[in-house]
Amino acid sequence: MTKMTVIGCGYLGAVHAACMARSGHEVIGIDVDAPKVESLLAGKAPFYEPGFEDVLVEALESGRLTFTTDLGAVKGSTVHFVCVGTPQRAGENAADMTYVDAAVNGLAPHLSPGDLVVGKSTVPVGTAARLASIVSAHQSTALLAWNPEFLREGFAVQDTLSPDRLVYGLPPAPHAEVAKAMLDEVYAQPLAAGTPLVTTDYATAELVKAAANSFLATKISFINAMAEVCEAAGADVAQLADAIGHDVRIGRRFLNAGLGFGGGCLSKDIRAFMARAGELGADQALAFLREIDSINMRRRVRMVDLAREVCGGSIVGRHIAVLGAAFKPNSDDIRDSPALNVAAQMQLQGATVTVTDPEALANARRVWPNLHYADTAMQAAAGADLVLLLTEWEEYRTIDPDELATVVAGRRMLDGRNALEPTQWRNAGWTYRALGRP
Ligand code: UGA
Predict the structure, then answer these.
(1) Does residue 216 have its Cβ closer than 6 Å to ligand 1?
(2) Which CATH superfamily is 3-200 part of?
(3) Separation of alpha carbons 11 and 120, rounded Å
(4) Is the pTM of this model over 0.90?
(5) Residue 213 C-alpha to ligand 1 middle, in angstroms?
(6) What angle do CA 147, 200, 136 make, to 5 degrees?
(7) pLDDT tens digits for 19-35?
(8) What sign does the dihedral 57-62-63-64 (CA atoms) show?
(9) 122 lines ligand 1 (CB under 6 A)
(10) What distance in angstroms lies between residue 211's CA and the mean position of ligand 1's atoms?
């Protein structure tokens, strides 16, 4: 059993803290946001994440988990996870390191001899080495390790309890063994279950995370580039993805063509990676990521163009229903949401847009107050000339075209996620269009 703190209780930190307590460790979650700490202490998740609240409540009841705003609470714990955010810097591609720097500078004076600071935030390569010197300047026997996180929103609990790999970026010898032993105790459960472990130096561990998200973004933009060609050639990108996906070297996962990626990670991470490579003089190596980003952004423009096309050349004055506001299903996260981006563009171009989502409406309302909102798909679609499916929640995938037809003004469906069965909709009298399909 390890006594640990988790600094930063957002998505990553809160889930990590609760899952570590569930694994038998004693955990103190620390965050500067007092209402968030109150909510977590009361067993209420501050965000929507399937299964998280159950783990949180169970961990609180076990007595092994607590939360506070007081950084001084780190005394008595030996391992300190840094899980704060690294958003995109305003007006630049680079990551904003303010929160990571504040966390480590705040933590360092409270460290005890032999403590281990573990970075989990996604950071530019070189950060760990810089932070290690801050740590050792305050406490000469304290160590730092880099342990990137690969959890997906919507599967955060599962990905934290049973990760598909663990990566330790360890300090140079002779300290590597000590840090590794401490991390092995923290991750005793997944290691015993056979989770692959890769131990590296700091820089490699930092780059693993950037490379993984860049590869995922590339896979999505690759298939979306194929969708553009399919549109030009009258071919079907969904069939194409199925066919190439059978090659195990390619694989079918993350080859879903559509509106592309959004969220708090992929876009900002590839941009920060390009910015950092530029600083290192390796910008040419990542020039392709600029194209990945452009392909992704083009899908949003294309979606609006398609809406105009099926409305006979103009969306001015048209009533449009948008199904989905979250950046992906099973999340209430609307950061860089492709769905809301398209909804807002259509509204700005003169349409009256009504958005619905099972979980993300409160967040959407706050950021896009000028859009209209409805609680259900049927309410959003009432009187609509056009319906767009932009986030593929299960309840939208299984919507009945005949039932929806009873409330709309015009049977026009744009499937931004290739989530519906085209023939089913066409047979029900709908004009069905999708990205990358004839
Ligand atoms: C992503 C990575 O998948 C995680 O491994 C990583 O830990 C995380 O970022 C992070 O850096 O914290 P996440 O942002 O939760 O996770 O979401 P993804 O499941 O990767 O989806 C990202 C976007 O890609 C969504 O908008 C989704 O709709 C889109 N997507 C995904 C597609 O357009 N097509 C696909 O085939 C798959």
Answers:
(1) yes
(2) NAD(P)-binding Rossmann-like Domain (3.40.50.720)
(3) 12
(4) yes
(5) 8
(6) 65
(7) 999 999 999 999 999 99
(8) negative
(9) yes
(10) 14
